[in-house]
Amino acid sequence: MPSGRTHDLVTYVLAIPTAVGLFFLTRHVGLTVLGTATMLFGGLMFGPDLDTHSKQYTRWGILRWLWYPYKKLFPHRSHWTHGLLWSTWLRVGYFTLVMTLALAAVLYVRAVWIDGLPADGDQAVRTLQTAGHHMSRLFRAVDGKVWLVAFIGLWWGAATHTLTDVIGSTLKSMFKTF
Ligand SMILES: [Zn+2]
Fold first, then answer.
1. Does position 71 have pLDDT exceeding 90, yes or no?
2. Distance from the alpha carbon of residue 115 to the mean position of ligand 1, in angstroms
């Protein structure tokens, strides 16, 4: 299995043709920068190896606990985290859910401690609804094309990781045979 350093190197090197390709596709500097940035983010921090104690995981620093349930939930190198088609969708969904819950927790603490509202189940449901509402407003406030390019970048950054893993494993088994 390629090391974290190899994965980083592959990500950096492929960022260049990615930027060129994005510019030819979009003819837009802003979208090119966005897609290349999310590709780097997908390869370095938002990639498949968040399912284990990896460079991607530790790069989140004090925020790495956000990924702790993800790491515990999915086995390392399973289809859930390394699959080419759905694993990025799953991470985006997971991250959105965690961010919504974190926002709800902040809103709950504010409602109870600052506004002096009762700390009960109703309050929890209300703050959760408000957090969900804020998140969906955020999604709608940004142009669909921007989300699409951002997602393609994320997906490609993660896909290069999976492909490097596959190539690494194939080479390893080849050398074992000879
Ligand atoms: Zn991996």
1. yes
2. 46
